[in-house]
Amino acid sequence: MTKRINTELDSYELVLSGALDNPVIIKAMTPLGYDHKAILYGNNLLKLTISLHQNREQKENNQKESTQRLREAYQRAYKQYMIYLKVARMLVSPNSFAWNEMKLGGTRKKNLAEWLVQAKAFYMHAGLVAEQLEQRGISRKSFCR
Known about the structure:
By secondary structure, this protein is mostly helical. Helix content is 77%, strand content 0%. It contains seven helices and no strands. Helix 1 packs across helix 2 (23-29) and helix 1 runs antiparallel to helix 3. The protein starts with a helix and ends with a helix. The mean pLDDT is 89.
C-alpha cells in the first residue's frame, strides 16, 4: 500500500510542478477555477501530505525495528531463564515455600506479559535458593543477571 501511495503522490507532484512551471497550462486551467494561486495552494498541500506520509513511514519503521529488538531480547532472556529455572527445579522441593514463591511449577507462559510475571517472581525470590546455588558453584550475581 505504501508503494501505491508513494506512486500517487509522485504523480500529483509531477502534475502540479509541471503546471506551475508552464504558464500555458496555468492559462488553460484558469477558466476551470485553477489559477496560479490555486495550483500553488494545491502544491503546498501536497508537500505537507508528502511530509506527513514520510513521517508516518519513519514511525512505522521505527516501531518494526523496536519490535524486532524486543523479540530478540526476549529470546535471549527466555533462553537464560530456562536454564536457571531447570536448575532451581532440581534444587527446590515441589512442596516448599520457595517453589511456590518462585513459581517453579507448571509450564512457562507464551504471552510476554504473563511470562514476565513468572520471570519477575522467579528472580525476585531467587534469594530463597541462593545458598543452595552457591554450594553448587553458581553465584547469585550470575543467576540474577
